[in-house]
Amino acid sequence: MPSFDIVSEVDKTEVKNAVEQTNKEVGTRFDFKGSDARVEQAELVLTVHADNEFQLNQVQDILNAKLTKRGVDIKCLEISDKIEKVSGNKIKRSCTVKVGVEIELAKKIVKFVKDSKMKVQASIQGDTVRITGGKRDDLQAAIQLIRTSITDFPLQYQNFRD
Fold it and tell me: Quick one: pLDDT band at residue 16, thresholds 50, 70, 90?
């Protein structure tokens, strides 16, 4: 029985490279001379440091541009609204790189597939959603349906088996 998995993954090395490129650009830019602006990475949590809120937003924009250039969809970034004060007048903000299909989104995908009356079944398996069907064409139609209906989160379609 043909099947495929819907996942949401991010290439961790590309995120690391984007963070390094951001730090390199911030270090060479004139408007950041003498400031403590930088991005730190702890696995999938990125922390943006700066002297003031304007510089914090500038560093965030540079990071977003570098991530996009490296092929990482910035829709998977969950940027915190809370800006924390560090020592003195320095501030920081955390960004989390979301990996895996969250349970609410997985339920939404399963509901879309069931409501479409297609000849496929959807099941949640951890942080992935598996779609199985009788024909390859049905599975390709399911991929098209999900691509058009879910646009606010980056999804990949993997493990296609006949």
Answer: very high
If we measure between CA atoms, which residue out of 50, 46, 48 comes closest to residue 31?
50
Written as one letter, the residue type at 19 is: V
pLDDT given for residue 36 in this prediction: 85
Separation between Cα atoms, residue 155 and residue 152, nearest integer Å: 9
* Max Cα-Cα span within the chain: 63
Q: Is 116 left (phi over 0), alpha (psi -120 to 50) or beta?
A: alpha
pLDDT greater than 90 at residue 17: yes
User: Measuring CA to CA, which residue among 67, 68, 78 is closest to residue 16?
Assistant: 67
Tokens 């088996």: give the residue: 161
Q: Is the pLDDT of residue 34 over 80?
A: yes
According to the 3-state scheme, what is the secondary structure of 78-147? EECCCCEECCCCCEEEEEEECCCCCHHHHHHHHHHHHHCCCCEEEEEECCEEEEEECCHHHHHHHHHHHH
pTM for this entry: 0.81
Pairing of strands 38-42, 45-50: antiparallel
